[in-house]
Amino acid sequence: MNALKPVDHRNKNTQLIKTEAKRLGFMSCGISKAGFLEEEAPRLEKWLNNNMHGEMGYMENYFDKRLDPTKLVPGSKSVISLLLNYYPEKTQDPGTYKLSKYAYGTDYHFVIKDKLKQLLFFINSEIGDVHGRAFVDSAPVLDKAWAAKSGLGWMGKHTNLLTKQLGSFYFIAELILDLELEYDTPVTDHCGSCTACIDACPTEAIVEPYKVDGSKCISYFTIELKNEIPTSFKGEYDDWVFGCDVCQDVCPWNRFSKSHREPLFDPNPKLLNMSKKDWEEITKDVFNELFKKSAVKRTKYEGLKRNINFLKD
Hints:
Pathway: tRNA modification; tRNA-queuosine biosynthesis. The chain is an alpha+beta fold and about 325 residues long.
């Protein structure tokens, strides 16, 4: 008599997770087998060797863990990649100093971490004793590479993840688990011969298709750089004081962006109506009120003032 084969629950568990992810508000969920990212290794090494990370010294840390989640989360078998839309219904008044759209509302780290905790709790409740960790852009995880590997989109020439359905205005997060699941496959690249993002970048940070010199990017200067902004970039900033959306704004695929449904990402109404004069006269108290739970707090009041003064002077 033949022994009974063990029941394979991978399909059922995969569907349970994807359904719950959708219920929690994630727009997409893709899954990859945890392992070494062979294609990314030489790219990352070359990017670091060419100092394209500027003063972002943390990018040099945990090189092995950055490329292999099994070193980051021992025993891990699956990387669950999730996308959360942040495209706003309303944007700032034209002609004012600009913030990247992702920073309009509550800091995404808090919003997404809470959803990931709920998803992990659901997995443990419905599937069993599953161990893993949640990541939101705050650990050595190559989130765009994993999202592309799991079929959620392709890496555009501006190195942001792109989808045909909704463009690129969304956050990427991961759950890395010691649970075997059914794995998705990558999608094809649909950038074609388009160079809109390369042509539009104010500081020519997209040095070639699919390669960004982080040390030339407006987002780097306005958020990551702690010293004075080099005067050689004077007049190239297009009024951005926190982050930059130019490469995404000009991308043809972002014509299909739809407004998010996450109330926590809605901006403070005062923020959208601020004039240049309001920004130039912003006090520390107003900064603290407007950006109490915002990602803009990362640059601090002094950093924001530095960015505004650089454009104003």
